[in-house]
Amino acid sequence: MHNLQIHAARKIVLKPLGALTPKPDEVLIRLGAGGICGSDLHYYFEGKNGSFVVREPMTPGHEASGVLEKVGSNVRGLEAGMKVAVNPSHPCGICPACRSGRENLCERMLFLGSASVFPHAQGMFADLFILGARQVTPVDAGVSLGELAFAEPLAVGLHAVQRAGGNLSGKRVLVTGAGTIGSLCALAAKLAGAAEVTVCDVLDRPLTIARQAGADHTFRSDTADAKDYAGRFDIALEAAGHPRALTTCLAGVKRGGVIVQVGTLPNEDLPFPANSIMAREIDYRGAFRWGIEFDWAVDYLASGKVNVKPLLTKQFALADAAAAFDLAADKTRATKVQVMGAGIPIEA
Asked: Do residues 324 and 316 lie in contact, with contact meaning Cβ atoms separated by under 8 Å?
């Protein structure tokens, strides 16, 4: 049994795990599947994610499913052997944001697998790990562990749609970026009733996957003529995290439209099209993580109402994490790559 740690850029260590015993209100979880996210890639390849620098050995991983190994003496309704979705978010519950129902904006948030705090919030890329019982949701449906690990990124897409207005019936939606988050934003928009969802990217393979995941139309944003899509969309969801993608959103939305920024743009100063937003009365909104949408995501996955299988490229044993990170970084070959806990069968 091992715990994966990032010590610095491109330096990972598999540290042997000692005995783990949950406290009365905790559960011991065997990692089922853990999705490699963009932030995990930044930590691995650069030793930092934006301004969050790895200053001590840190276990990444915030997209996970698992199987319960042991439950604490006070835990009710959970038992060993249960398949669970794992919520990586630990809001304080008492700050103004939490009390107003916007837990994702918590002032004292502890989000697993992040160097945003010190000591770092350790993540879930470990064969076994302990969390509070309230962080897990049991699922008795036939959904696979690999699919269940999509609950967190699906929640991001669902929250982005909520920020766009929630009910998208009859709306035309543009999503920039056809990676995991972009494809799930497209899927979430369809769930919300969008009449038409178009996804754009600069690579062909992600666009093929986005169509398999449910996008109605796709196009290459690096070669398309902006005149062909200018002012065509009611809503644009920026999920690429690139300044040119934001420019595509601005061109694509009609007067009075809505742009929701989901992707993280570079830290350096960026020109901001304030006059265009003003003159066309465009609503520019941010979408950060998620709140109650995590529960919705688990329900959608467990009920089979969404199909995330096209997004799952390959799974690796935790011991092969370096190869998993390398594949996950290659967008010409991969969408979502996952690592699996010891004793968990590879599904893809």
From this structure: yes
- As beta bridge partners, residue 201 has 220
Please give the helix or strand (H or E) that residue 285 lies within, else none: strand 283-286
Q: Domain map of the chain by residue range?
A: 2-150+308-340, 157-286
Distance between CA atoms of residues 79 and 61, nearest Å: 24
- The crossing angle, in degrees rounded to 10, of helices 180-191 and 151-164 is 60
Residue with structure tokens 């329900």?
A: 299
Supply the DSSP symbol for 232: -
Domain spanning 157-286, CATH architecture: 3-Layer(aba) Sandwich (3.40)
Place of tokens 């000591």: 119
pTM (two decimals)? 0.95
How far, in Å, CA of 90 to CA of 174, rounded? 32
Closest CA to 27 of 122, 144, 177, 132: 132
The CATH number that domain 2-150+308-340 falls under is: 3.90.180.10
Classify 70 as helix, strand or coil: strand
64's tokens:
């996970």
Q: CB count, 10 Å around CB of 344?
A: 21
Give per-residue burial for 46-60: e unless 16+ CB within 10 Å, then b.
ebebeebebeebbbb
Query: What tokens appear for 297 in the block?
Result: 């995501």
Q: What is the pLDDT of residue 173?
A: 98
Q: Which residue, among 130, 107, 134, has the nearest Cα to 59 in the 3D structure?
A: 130
Stretch (H or E) spanning 185: helix 180-191
In sequence order, the 6+-apart residues with CB closer than 8 A to the CB of 285 are: 163, 164, 258, 259, 260, 261
Q: How many residues does the chain have?
A: 348
* pLDDT tens per residue across span 120-169: 999 999 999 999 999 999 998 789 999 999 999 999 999 999 999 999 99
Q: How far apart are CA 252 and CA 38, in angstroms?
A: 25
Mark the ranges of the chain whose per-residue pLDDT is less than 70: none
